[in-house]
Design a protein that fits this description.
The structure is a homodimer of 308-residue chains.
Chain A lengths: L8 E4 L1 H5 L9 H13 L4 E6 L12 H7 L7 E5 L3 H9 L4 E7 L2 H8 L3 H13 L6 E7 L3 E2 L3 E2 L2 H11 L7 E5 L7 H14 L5 E5 L7 H11 L3 E4 L19 H10 L8 H12 L10 H11 L4
Parallel strand pairs in A: 1-10, 2-3, 3-4, 4-5, 5-8, 8-9, 9-10
Antiparallel strand pairs in A: 6-7
Helix pairs in contact in A: 2-11, 4-6, 8-9
Chain lengths: 308, 308
């Protein structure tokens, strides 16, 4: 979190969110090589995997090895997702220093994901926090903050009521509102962030996890940026989506977000010319669901046009 | 132009901008059938074709027939593109009551399109206006208002200098700023519209022609909306792009724009459930270059999920 007010931090979530829905196992060496290349393009924070039952998510069973390999990737800030206190402790023991936890505002979505109510998940989050040393960074992901695949649009009051339980537990975190379905509109993003930022000024940092399923990924990133959000999840090659949200393929693509900010003159630290070939290789991963526009547009432009 | 301040007008340009780059001739009867279905989805103004040399654009050689067929399509407001005074008179004689003219801010792009300087095209526009009765509506398209495929980013001062020549000729028009390359960013859209609307308050109506080549189509539409723009060009199925701008495929898709406004609670008069099947048929036109997200996302959602 070294970005200034005039810079945007892009958090690369492809290696976790993008890979987890891919059936054929991506060889660990290939994951590490892609990770190294992503970081060499200027990305720093990467969600590299998840400490979770290997039976539940076999694609992420090598997270411990990936985490260890990060010691040899200069500049990387590896973030890992954990589903509960137990796996949080495993992640800590394996050397994690940036953990992410997720729960949903929507009862139906949370039960579908972890067979618990949102309030029960909030209690689990409290136990996880209690087990974490002070020097461990924390990201809290609020899924279905805007909209739920089962229940439709989520009322702002519901999202805020859940945050009323969560924020007092620890304010020194990064709090990420997630558009799980991709159906948040830019005015909704603006309004919910405005309400949350006003109600919870003690939160250290706000983030947006945007999906591009309906083409609104960049519109929503821009809207959150205008509101003062400075951290944005994105997946290289637009890989992934939520396997529990039917039809919700399509994380916003890292290269699309980096492109927009570059056109706006806002620093992300990302070198697009280095990133695009990695995104092209990511899009070619067998079983992957790639998305985004910039990858193909820049390839077309390179073939035809004199300027980017 | 019957929209209120709280409503957005989507101008369907697929039948001209989307079709003109398609090599295999689309049978006239098929064009008329698609046009009828587009209007039945709630679209009113449609750029149905271009009065132009049939040798230059053989796909649009049947514009006179299409225009005549509009007499039997209740509610349609047919708009036609004309390249100069001569073809403007032909369009008037054929019964056109809504004409569009285009010129580029960028010298290189204008010369590439019509082998004239922008100032020479401005004079042609003056001759066209002089030939038009008062009851004929006029749309003026400013190509490369933001960015040029040959010259890169266009300075705001350049766009405004050209408008200084054009606006005094007739203010009672719709003035459309066109993102020819798709490389305008939302802050650029906001800033240029703000500057133009302040300098030319006499202009009756402003419009944006957005491209989605780099995924910024909806972000730019939203940005213009925030600025007070109420008319937006879009192409069903995302068909088309500028054949003279290398790599610049991808008009923003009508269904994507309609979707965003619906999620924002803003009326466009478009019924998406009627439009999507037409967009699917448009995407299947042989030789077409479809784009957009909502068409496929809604199809996936209909197959899997309980709610839109």
């Amino acid at each position: 979190m070294t970005t200034t007010d005039a810079a945007a931090e892009v958090v690369e979530v492809g290696p976790r969110d993008g890979y987890q829905g891919i059936k054929p196992f991506i060889p660990t060496e290939m994951k590490i090589d892609l990770l190294r290349r992503l970081v060499s393009s200027g990305l720093k924070r990467v969600e590299i995997g998840s400490f979770v039952s290997a039976a539940a998510l076999p694609q992420l069973a090598d997270t411990t090895e990936i985490l260890a390999a990060c010691d040899d990737i200069p500049g990387i800030i590896p973030q890992v997702l954990v589903p509960n206190e137990k796996y949080g402790r495993l992640a800590l023991n394996a050397g994690s220093r940036f953990l992410a936890f997720v729960l949903s505002v929507s009862e139906a979505h949370n039960r579908n994901n972890v067979r618990r109510s949102p309030r029960e998940s909030a209690e689990e989050y409290g136990r996880l926090l209690a087990a974490m040393p002070d020097d461990v960074d924390m990201r809290l992901n609020i899924a279905t903050a805007f909209d739920c695949p089962f229940e439709g649009r989520v009322a702002e009051a519901e999202t805020i009521a859940l945050l009323d339980c969560l924020v007092p537990l620890r304010a020194n975190i990064e709090l990420c509102l997630c558009d799980t379905t991709g159906r948040a509109s830019p005015d909704h993003v603006e309004h919910l962030f405005a309400a949350c930022m006003q109600r919870f000024p003690q939160v250290k940092r706000w983030a947006l996890h945007a999906h591009d399923t309906y083409g609104l990924g960049l519109a929503n990133v821009h809207s959150a940026w205008r509101q003062g959000v400075r951290a944005f999840d994105a997946s290289y090659a637009g890989l992934g989506g939520c396997p529990f949200a039917p039809g919700a393929t399509g994380n916003v693509a890292t290269e699309d977000v980096a492109w927009m900010f570059r056109r706006m003159g806002i620093d992300t630290g990302i070198d697009l010319e280095t990133l695009i070939p990695v995104a092209c290789d990511g899009a070619a991963i067998p079983g992957g669901l790639p998305g985004g526009r910039v990858r193909q547009a820049l390839a077309a432009a390179a073939a035809n046009a004199p300027c980017l």
